[in-house]
């Protein structure tokens, strides 16, 4: 699977299957899947204060698959995903020359 992106964010509306698709991509590519819901929710479904810090730690990892959700997480995930996508596209362009 060399050359494929290793930081993958699956976007979609609520109930569209983001988590299901993210898990399948994770299984197929052998990249760790991290469910943002599990980082966001604490006891009794209350938001965890450390959520943003946990998302920052997640996106700093070299490889992950997750859903793109939660207003506080989206900017962190998108920035990292865009950088990774640019590097991947650049490597694919060089390889095709």
From TrEMBL:
<dbReference type="InterPro" id="IPR052922">
    <property type="entry name" value="Cytidylate_Kinase-2"/>
</dbReference>
<keyword id="KW-0418">Kinase</keyword>
<dbReference type="GO" id="GO:0016301">
    <property type="term" value="F:kinase activity"/>
</dbReference>
<protein>
    <submittedName>
        <fullName>Adenylate kinase family enzyme</fullName>
    </submittedName>
</protein>
<keyword id="KW-0808">Transferase</keyword>
<dbReference type="InterPro" id="IPR027417">
    <property type="entry name" value="P-loop_NTPase"/>
</dbReference>
